[in-house]
Amino acid sequence: MKPEVVLTILIVTILGMAMEGCHCKMVQFIFGDSLSDVGNNRYLSRSLATANLPWYGIDFGNGLPNGRFSNGRTVADITGDMMGLPRPPAFLDPSLTEDMILENGVNYASGGAGILNETGGYFIQKFTLYKQIELYQGTQQLIINKIGKEAAQQFFQEARYVVALGSNDFINNYLMPVYNDSWKYNDQGFVQYLMETLQRQITILHSLGAREMVVFGLGPMGCIPLQRVLSTSGECQDRTNRLAKSFNKATSQLVDNLSRKLTNSSIKFGDAYDVVNDLITNPRKYGFNNSDSPCCSFGRIRPALTCIPASVLCKDRSKYVFWDEYHPSDSANELIANELIKKFGFLRVNDSNAPSPAPAAAPTSGAAPSPHN
Known about the structure:
Blueprint: H1 3-20, E1 28-32, H2 75-82, H3 98-104, E2 105-107, H4 129-147, H5 149-158, E3 160-164, H6 167-174, H7 181-184, H8 187-207, E4 212-216, H9 225-230, H10 238-261, E5 266-270, H11 273-281, E6 290-294, E7 296-297, E8 312-313, E9 320-322, H12 330-344
Parallel strand pairs: 1-2, 1-3, 3-4, 4-5, 6-9
Antiparallel strand pairs: 7-8
Helix pairs in contact: 2-12, 4-5, 8-10
Signal peptide: 1-24
Family: Belongs to the 'GDSL' lipolytic enzyme family.
Pfam family, one: Lipase_GDSL
């Protein structure tokens, strides 16, 4: 073959590759707290916010703890499945590689994390939102080194982004007198402080290529079992719920403003308050029979903040809205995810891919089996 023919073929091939760009799968990058953590904190050796003990994960895969703060899946797991998105592994997963990132994205969520760096300080180790963004920057450099700057830019701009934090900033910061923020701000001032911080964080993510983003609001956090048991009446804490509503209103306005201001951005606010509140207020309407106490508890000793091997499980995990003092059960997460998908009209984005598998064992009745069974 003549040299000029070979050269022509080579040039055409290179141009074709350049025009095609990155044929990467659409993935998601998740920034969050324990409601979205899929195992980061289990690799933080000094963290006091972990889900490493039975009976966490009892209704997921092999039934052993996997880092999720639930008996099964998270809301992010389920919504991603329904949209045809792969489940992103934890950033600290030892098996994480560049190829896995290109195939599945990354989950940076960390139990105890907040929008603010000072939130959840007594958990000792966790990834704050600023730290999660820093880790995302490192991920970007890995992918740039793997596939080149232009292809990496396309990959990250076509990905989906989830930001879901805020409850710890109240429950494990502002509402606790051991933190300076509890006496430094009033309610309105603290929400404004959160918004100023969140605005900077979303703007940084946008500058790093995030274009399609959902920023989730808070549910009625005054109705989680921990808040109920700390009240004198056992009812929901009104002030805590009012703070959640104030946060949601301010975040919705912030997201609207940023979506207009930031170039080529589509930033949506995910308001789950009404969905979760209706589930808690009318559990039997959705097939549940308990929405005020945890399935996994330490008998009458409450609050036992985490589920432990000595804890007693409820008779039917599928009938309890809450798994432990803080976190919903797999069944509740499934209902919440399905309601959010209907409410926001989330569409499948990877039609050729089947959803990731659901838990191998659905929630069942009866006491907890031995983890070796």
